[in-house]
Design a protein that fits this description.
The chain is α/β, with parallel strands linked by helices. The protein folds into three domains: 1-77, no CATH class; 80-209, no CATH class; 322-499, no CATH class. It has helices at 20-35, 48-56, 64-77, 89-101, 121-127, 144-153, 170-177, 186-191, 217-226, 238-247, 269-275, 293-299, 342-348, 393-402, 419-427, 447-456, 470-485; strands spanning 81-86, 108-113, 135-139, 159-161, 207-209, 232-234, 258-262, 281-285, 305-311, 329-341, 354-363, 378-382, 408-411, 436-440, 462-469, 491-497. A 16-stranded parallel beta sheet has the order 1-2-3-4-5-6-7-8-9-10-11-12-13-14-15-16.
Length: 499
């Protein structure tokens, strides 16, 4: 039961059980009270499990003062996981005081703060006693002092994310790893010749995100050389650090499974693959050179996921000549339009489960062969907004049947798609598992075809018809009313060119 004290507002009684309606009513009562300026700083007592669930829902319309009250109460109650977003300096300070007083129980701490928020020494002092911490995410206000405090606590830290914290530098990385000797040659750093005692947390770190920090290539080299369990290092200079490791003659294998690069050249992939025998994912955004998709896959045969964003391939026909049977995730985003032969694509990557192609023009031979069996669960085929050529309706029909087991489908420029094409695709088994379907510009799909789609696709929960003329948008508003009256479980999203 939820009640509000009418005089002093010393607190609101939390629900005794984690029932959704009771939790929602309690949070709403807290929100209403905060809106009236009552009970903002009053102690909030509730079981730790309830507070954890409440904080996980804090992003849904709760005032920041309520979020701060819940966070302070959670820390005081001894929760092990805290994930909170705060921006007001006074509220941040209140939470820091609670963390300073009760630091010992936390195993996971995520603090997302405002862009101009600064953390004083309270958090550094608290982190010295967070000996159980396994995951730390602070953005954008972490500093080298916080990493030094972690080194003092020596927690079993596995995940560290200080992305966009410009005050984190190589100095903080050295402190975190317990390294104080700055006079050693780079070769010794690369080969891991240390005089320090790099134990915890370096011995447990497996995921590190340093994107947007002041950490340089040297800091990345230190992490690679000191953290034996490191599987993912996100930093602008991680590619250069790997290149240095190769050139210095490092022979001890690295545990990296994911390589993320941005606005830099790809390192020599064959020796990197030899140094990282478990490398399974490569992500490169705006690579400065023009990567060859076939060379990338042949030089790193262990890849199961390849993402190349905003790039120009070396060849117009970028599809590899040989099959890549182990690749399950492929995401390519081209800066200029590139054709893609869908039948060849399906044959080259038979194990794909996730396919995202931006800036492509899909084609088929004539007559098109029957679509092969596909494992694809998520498909996105989008043409470049500048050129925006319409997809051939038969290509759309073929693609829908090809990915008949997909739960998520996003196709761009479907202005030529008609009820007839959609009906044939459904009759051939398309969309039977679809939950989320997005068709851009599908202005010729009628209300009747949409209702037939609902009947044939029992799992469909979201249908987005994008980039439509205003006349069709008005018609679909009437269809939304019909769907609500029939109590159908479908979210129909419509938006487009309103002129």
């Amino acid at each position: 039961m939820v009640f509000v004290s009418s005089d002093r507002m010393v607190g609101l009684r939390p629900p005794e059980r984690l029932e959704a309606w009771a939790l929602s009513a309690w949070l709403q009562a807290l929100n209403t009270a905060a809106g009236r300026g009552k009970g903002v700083s009053a102690p909030l007592k509730a079981p730790p499990a309830l507070l954890s669930v409440a904080l996980s829902q804090a992003a849904v319309g709760l005032r920041e003062t309520v979020v701060a009250r819940l966070a302070v109460a959670a820390v005081t109650a001894g929760v092990s996981r805290l994930d909170v977003h705060l921006e007001h300096p006074t509220l941040v300070q209140t939470l820091l005081e609670a963390l300073h007083a009760h630091p010992q129980h936390l195993t996971s701490l995520t603090l997302t703060l405002g862009p101009r928020t600064s953390l004083d020494g309270l958090l550094s002092e608290a982190m010295c006693y967070m000996t159980c911490l396994t995951s730390l995410v602070i953005t954008p206000a972490a500093t080298d002092a916080h990493l030094a405090a972690l080194a003092q606590a020596t927690p079993p830290l596995g995940t560290l994310d200080v992305s966009y914290c410009s005050a984190v530098t190589d100095k903080g990385v050295r402190a975190l790893l317990g390294l104080t000797d700055d006079a050693r040659p780079v070769r010794e750093v690369v080969l891991g010749v240390f005089k320090g005692t790099a134990e915890a947390p370096a011995s447990n770190l497996h995921t590190v995100n340093l994107w947007g920090t002041g950490v340089t290539t040297l800091g990345c080299v230190l992490l690679l050389a000191t953290c034996p369990a490191l599987t993912s290092l996100t930093c602008r200079w991680s590619g250069e650090a790997l290149d240095l490791s190769v050139r210095a003659g490092r022979e001890a294998p690295l545990s990296l499974t994911q390589l993320i690069l941005a606005e830099s050249s790809l390192p020599p992939l064959a020796p990197v693959a030899a140094l990282c025998p478990h490398l399974s994912s490569l992500v490169a955004r705006r690579p400065s050179d023009a990567p060859n998709v076939e060379e990338v896959l042949s030089e790193v045969p262990t890849l199961t996921s390849l993402t190349l964003m905003q790039f120009l391939p070396q060849q117009e026909n970028w599809l590899p000549a040989s099959r890549a049977p182990f690749l399950t995730h492929l995401h390519l985003s081209f800066l200029e339009p590139r054709p893609v032969h869908l039948v060849r694509l399906a044959d080259t990557f038979p194990s794909l489960t996730h396919l995202f192609l931006d800036g492509v023009t899909p084609t088929l031979p004539y007559p098109p062969p029957p679509p092969p069996v596909s494992k694809i669960e998520s498909l996105r085929l989008v043409t470049l907004p500048i050129t925006n050529p319409d997809l051939d309706a038969e290509v759309v029909e073929w693609a829908l049947v090809w990915v008949s087991a997909a739960s998520s489908i996003d196709l761009g420029s479907c202005r030529l798609l008609t009820d007839e094409h959609l009906t044939r695709a459904i009759a051939a088994g398309a969309l039977t598992q679809a939950e989320d379907v997005r068709l851009s510009g599908a202005r010729q799909i009628t209300d009747g075809a949409i209702m037939d789609l609902l009947t044939a696709c029992p799992h469909l929960r979201r249908l987005a018809l994008k980039m439509l003329p205003k006349e069709r948008l008005a018609e679909l508003e009437s269809l939304k009313v019909t769907l609500r009256k029939q109590n159908l479980d479908l979210e129909l999203i419509t938006y487009g060119w309103k002129f």
